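The freezer alarm interrupted the setup, so I double-checked each line after restarting. Inputs confirmed:
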Amino acid sequence: MTQEPLASSRTARTRLRREEIVTTAARTFADRGYAHVGMRDIADAVGIRGASLYHHFAAKEEILYAVCLTVTREPCEENLPLLDAAGTPARRTAMLVRAHLRHLYRRRVEHLVGLHEMASLSPEHRAEIDGHRRYYQRRVRDVITAGMRSGEFTVPDAQLATFGVLDMLNGFSGWFRDDRGLSLDDVVEGYVELVVGRMLGARGALD
Amino acid sequence: MTQEPLASSRTARTRLRREEIVTTAARTFADRGYAHVGMRDIADAVGIRGASLYHHFAAKEEILYAVCLTVTREPCEENLPLLDAAGTPARRTAMLVRAHLRHLYRRRVEHLVGLHEMASLSPEHRAEIDGHRRYYQRRVRDVITAGMRSGEFTVPDAQLATFGVLDMLNGFSGWFRDDRGLSLDDVVEGYVELVVGRMLGARGALD
DNA sequence: CCATCCGCCTAACCGCGGTTAGGCTTTCGC
DNA sequence: GCGAAAGCCTAACCGCGGTTAGGCGGATGG
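Predicted 3D structure, all chains:
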């Protein structure tokens, strides 16, 4: 009877170590910028030597790639299903906005990195990350279009509204602080009101 | 009243050369990322040798600093005076949104650099750039607050609305393309409607 | 018309940092 | 238990790229 049956497996511990490195590296990247962080810096923060990182990642860029994956694949897997749930487009959009902001909060360090350091990815990796982002954007545009057809949303152009909404939401991780100003819940509900209720024009459809 | 007779003045030509280097460097930074661009790359694009750049700038970071200055100081000098003009807060805000987007367009290359490469600035330079940004943000928040007092704007929280508006606007330079989709004028007037008319709630106050 | 400085050059430096080589200890699966 | 891999170590490499040194021609302004 092992205490941690799952975490004791060799592959599972390896994966945990990888995730620890990715999380630690993301924090360092966010603080000082990808280019100004050396492999030895990441290793120090984890508690090992620089060269030992190469037992987990083939290159520094692979670590950045892992960070970027968590902020583009996770939202696709966790948030987008909300758009397939039952309910009006306005309600489904509001659910997505909430999930989107909460993911930006939960992974705010990784999001800061993912938004600025895209240029340091290899062309193939960047193409994949871009694909996720574009897919997410397309799904949001589709629900906005659906809301326009159902009459709940009254924006002049679905594509323009999509850009506006996503840029406004994604900016959140750049300025939010836990220790001052509005609380997370304040921001989430305030943004639902500003975005879905006002910008998209579904004021009555949410209550 | 000293008037520049021609570009033949020694100091004037020096300044033009500097601006040419900054513009060229900004384009290269935007394409490949600051860290992946060498002094020799910038020099090649200008048509001189790498070491010759040091007759115009003391360090690579000074070039980045010059790029960042044009996208934070220029909006303060050119856009903010519109907030001091006559008119209701709603109209003044609409004017600012238009000027802001047109500046993002005119300097879109520099804005792309300024938004992601902040981490490569020296602490002093970053502090100055941050200061300009914060001042701009404060002025926008002030006009939104004024609009709330005058009753034109009905947002729940001025600070939250400020973040939302500026993040939405600044995202523009990241996705706009001249050769496809909406025209610049379409975006400008569409965003005025979405931001001032809908998000801030001044639908009637603009006509 | 001349002294001067500007602008650019060639050549080289040199330190940082990503990466590799190779070996030791520990630990897990069988 | 035992072989084998995982995981980490020390040591060193080495190329890239920011930066410096020092010189040359030609425009400039007095």
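Quick read of the result. Residues 123-150 of chain A form the longest helix (28 residues).
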